[in-house]
Amino acid sequence: MDPYALKTLNAERRARRAVILVTDLGDGRDRIVREGDQVAGELGAAIAKAFRSGNSGSVEAEGGTFFLNVYLPQPRLLVIGAVHISQALAPMAKIAGYPVEIVDPRTAFATADRFPDVVLHAEWPEDVLSRQPLDSYTALAAVTHDPKIDDFALKAALDANCFYVGALGSRKTHAKRVERLLAMGATADQIARIHAPIGLDIGAASPAEIAVAIIAQAIQAFRSRGLESKEAAA
């Protein structure tokens, strides 16, 4: 591999940004393509698909053969609220391959007894996110029902372009939330990205069922990254 390409690749991976090392198997030349870079034609379509799937492999495009070596950051889930839903959601997310951390300043809720083997932050989201900024490979689920805890995290998730942002609450509750987020500087387009009520509409009622709906919706959002803009342009 070209030393410059290797240096660039390592820097992007440290910054939790997705990249693909594209190697022309005809002449051996390679280049780095970052997620969001515009690549036209058949090769561009193959690269976009590889970013969504995370699968490396060879492709035939533009009359040649290319190997796409895909490097995606590990998608993760940050849950705001150490509630009953979170107790069911944490193990489900781990099984699905999403490392989980839970934030809740209410020390009576954020306890190791209630969340064994889960990274817990018994702090305000403001303090946690100042140390551990969100990014586009993070999913955020806000489930406290408390604006003092949820709202800051939701605004931070929108600003960081998290691939999934969900918030617990009825449509009436969400309408009030929208007013607060607008006052905090969020745009209408950003707010439209919030899944509220949270989770796929499967008629979930119990905390465990709601947790299933949330992780399924997060997976759907992760695997469909980039398709929204493509469909809008069609």
TrEMBL record:
InterPro entries: MoCofactor_Util/Proc, XdhC_Rossmann_dom. Residues 77-217 form the XdhC Rossmann domain. PANTHER family: ALDEHYDE OXIDOREDUCTASE MOLYBDENUM COFACTOR ASSEMBLY PROTEIN, MOLYBDENUM COFACTOR INSERTION CHAPERONE PAOD. This is Carbon monoxide dehydrogenase F protein. It comes from Mesorhizobium ventifaucium. The lineage of its organism: Bacteria, Pseudomonadati, Pseudomonadota, Alphaproteobacteria, Hyphomicrobiales.
